[in-house]
What does this fold into?
Amino acid sequence: MLRLAADNYTKKVVVFITDTSDVQTDQVETRALQDHGIPKESIYKKKDQINKAGGIINSGLIITNKHKGSLEATWSALPKDPNKVIIVWDEADYDAPGHNSNIGKQVQKHEHLNKLAKHASEIHYVSATVAGLVVSDIEFTKIEVIENGEDYLGFSDCTLISLGDEDVQEMLKTGEMSPTLKNFFVEHADEGVFIRACREVADMTAIVESTEALDLGVNVVTLNGDTKDSIDPKTFEGVLATFKMGARGVSFNKLKHTVQDYSSTTPQPVIVQSLRNLGYGKKLEQNFILASTSSLSLLKEAFAVEDRMKKILEKYPGDPEKRKEEVRKMRLDKDLCILPKNKGNSFKNETSKNKFEIRAKVPYTRDIEKALQASGQLLVSIEDADNSHYLRWGGRPFEKVVKDFLNTPPNSPVWLERSDLQYVSPTISIRRLVSKEVLAESSECWGFLLDENTGNPIYIALFELFEKPQVSYSFTDQT
It folds into this structure.
């Protein structure tokens, strides 16, 4: 995309929007100068340099991050004619262009980004992850997939090493490392290791100190706001520990292995982009990714989802509704978050608390009930209740009892922990016709759907029970 800037900066103003990290804006400037020959006097980086230009910038390269000050300065410097403006929107997926947030400081950021997007003759969205773009309302005119060359180290080229159920960040912080992790550092630190931790930034110093204690004979440093000006991603060698500063969009040319740690709320795009050990010129006989069992599971799922998202985007570039329709069909592990709540064009992860889906249903009649029982498909029965039986629901409203317990599969845990006969109302009860063990063997099971007010059966339904809660997706209308 900087080639596009090099071809146009003398005639138009090219706005290059990076993510929030200063490391990214610095990297864009370095590449513009060294790799594409754009002169220093034609580059305006972030708020101070843009304001220093003293007004409208009719030609040149503006490099802005997504902080309020830089975005406001960029807007003030744009020519009035949108035909003189080209935008290169890097890491666009994580802003979900067109999204209007109502969460704190995100409001102003999205307002400024959306305003910039409406004042350009062309916009080039660039991202290694596409979930935010798939669920956006953008009608793309063209999708260009950049194919990796043979010299590119991809995720599938790496060897995954499980560190078991250990707390990886705690091991790194305290220095009490498992033999697998310690031996890895001793044998491969000289090939370059990128450490990505998932919790406290303050832990970075402790991680560096404990890793230095291994006496690896290489530089061991942390990348943060204090060290960003002294670390060159292109040339750094050794072991680098970081959090958000190295999260995405930065290439570390000499780091060829990685140790990763994710929390259960780490979004899918962050997981995919966290592997800063990937890239050109990095292939060794073996390149390693080390993480806990749970983190490796999230990592595999994140890359599988990315492949599916890219196929959706390629198939329906100009049709947002078709893209959303395809995303709604996806089913994922509940532990994988596609996008944070404050991003994604009102895209929502909705986890089914009931851990089941209704695959089919027919209106209830006694004849259908008996027919399904006779065929061995329906293993519960509606029976007359003892009118004198006192129903105890713990003070909960009856409709809530129906929703949370009675209208669930007969083979669900909440049913199996109860007795064979369950009273629904003073006149109706449900009886289990087989043992709990028989019911527990099947994932699919016929059962009853009851009226929330009366408890009377209204449907006979085929339930599918999941081992884990299933995730579905919805979209609300944008303003």
